[in-house]
Amino acid sequence: MYRTGALDLILHGGSVPRWLYDRMVKLAKGIFTVIVDEFGVEEVLNRISDPLFFQALSNVLGFDWDSSGSTTVTCSVLKEVFGKEDFGVKIAGGKGEKSRKTLDELEAIGEEFNISTRKIEELKYASRMTAKVDNTAIQAGYQIYHHTIFVSENGGWAVVQQGLNLESKTARRYHWLSKNLKSFVETPHTGIIGERFHENVLDMTSKKSEECRKVCVDLVNEPKEKLQRQYLVLVKPNQTLLTEQPKKIGFANYPHYKLLPEKVNWKALYEAYEVKPKNFEEVLAVKGIGPATVKGLALVAEIVYGAKPSWEDPLKFSFAFGGKDGIPYPVRRRVMDKAIKFLEDAVEAAEVGNREKLEALKRLKSFAPKTLTAYKT
């Protein structure tokens, strides 16, 4: 995967009027009827996990290109469509309180599709772990508030979830796909989309963080008292007594030292020590291991043992098409046009009124950036 730019997702208030929502459901039904008929059930998951396709779909259904609501409402529309239609795909989860019903809904989906008990448990684990990774292993200040998992009749899955940064009042969307997923904790996403890049973002899913992840596992498997002593040295480096005020100190070689949290969940770390995790994924799976604890472990690994994590924001957009700034390569116009043409054909084939088709096509055509005309196909 490549970093190729960013897409604005501004927090928009208000709700979708019923007259529009009903039309969105009708249009989405037509589009996915074509997709399933032409390409099969698993292609639905492939498309949903593609950030550009998802955004184009949202625009076709009626959203502004930069609206954060495009995630929550589009997923709500698709959940209704897939719930009513026999497309071989169902959706669990949603925004806020609905996300807390995800595991129960996965049970129901498993029964409907006659999925094995073992596979249902794997789906539940995928739901929990994707949320844990995006809340804890990647720390850019975004708290997950919307979580949906798309499940096919064959047990494949895709996750679309969104986080909110209260300080910057922006949203960030995360895409996952089970197909070819080798690890939940190393470059697992098919795309991460947000308004802006942030500085000093701890990314424990980066390949650059591989050694740091290994050291964190080693630290968790050490007796809690030893880890506490090492941590105390970092939090209060010149303190000789617990009641003594620490002196100011600067770690010139470790610019992220100032991000060291003073409080970590020692109870959770003790429970992790009892579990004896074999890898970083198992560390994350321990209940109570949150962002502060992971950041504390990462900084001990970096400062004490020299195993540096990545502090680069993993924000990505449209790695399949390239970036408008030419990184890692200029936008692949033909490939992008092919995706747009696919949606155009789907809209044409959809069972909607002529006027609605026309308006949907207009929205789709406006999605292609005019600034890309300088690139040769």
Roughly what fraction of the amino acids lie in strands?
A: 5-15%
- State the total count of DSSP E strands: 7
What's the end-to-end separation, in Å?
A: 22 Å
The residue fraction in helices comes out at 40-55%
Sequence stretches where pLDDT stays below 50 over 5 or more residues: 1-12, 240-250, 318-325, 371-377
Query: How many helix segments?
Result: 13
Order of helices and strands: HHHHEHHEEEEEEHHHHHHH
Q: What gross morphology would you assign? A: elongated
Oligomer: single chain
Spatial strand order of the main sheet? 1-3-4-5-6
Average pLDDT for all residues: 83
Major sheet: 5 strands, antiparallel
Describe the structure.
The protein is α+β, with helices and mostly antiparallel strands and 377 residues long. The chain has two domains: 18-202, no CATH class; 207-305, no CATH class. It has 13 helices and seven strands. It has helices at 18-39, 41-48, 51-61, 69-84, 102-113, 117-137, 210-220, 224-235, 266-275, 280-285, 291-305, 333-349, 354-367; strands at 89-95, 138-139, 143-152, 157-165, 170-177, 191-194, 202-203.
